[in-house]
Design brief:
about 100 residues; mainly beta; Jelly Rolls; 3-stranded antiparallel beta sheet
Length: about 100
C-alpha cells in the first residue's frame, strides 16, 4: 500500500491510498466502521462485500459501506491496482494493509 495523499500532506479529512494486488494475492478480509470508495485503475479483481462477489476491472468504481465485510482477490495472471479513499481519522489510519 502506498499513501498518495494523507497526514504527511496536511490533508484535513481523507487519505488516498494506492494498492497493488499481485496474481493470486488478496487484501485481508475485514470490516470497519466507516465507508470507503474504491476506483480500480488496472487489472481485474473479485470484490467481496458482505458475502456478495462482483468481478471488477479497470475503470470500475465501488462503494464499500460502513461495517461491510469485504476483500479483494486477484484471480488473474496480471497485477491489479486500485485507489481507495478513507477518512483520515479512521481506525485503520494509514498503517493497516487492505482496504
Amino acid at each position: 500500500m502506498q499513501i498518495m495523499v494523507g497526514r504527511a500532506d496536511a490533508a484535513p479529512s481523507f487519505a488516498l491510498r494506492h494498492f497493488i494486488v499481485e496474481p493470486g494475492g488478496h487484501t485481508p478480509r475485514h470490516s470497519h466502521p466507516y465507508e470507503h470508495e474504491v476506483y480500480v485503475v488496472a487489472g481485474s479483481l473479485a470484490a467481496e462485500c458482505d458475502g456478495s462477489v462482483k468481478e471488477v476491472s479497470g475503470g470500475d468504481v465501488l462503494l464499500v459501506p460502513s461495517g461491510a465485510v469485504h476483500q479483494f482477490v486477484n484471480q488473474s495472471s496480471s497485477p491489479a491496482r486500485f485507489l481507495c479513499v478513507v477518512p483520515l481519522e479512521s481506525d485503520c489510519g494509514e498503517d493497516v494493509p487492505g482496504s
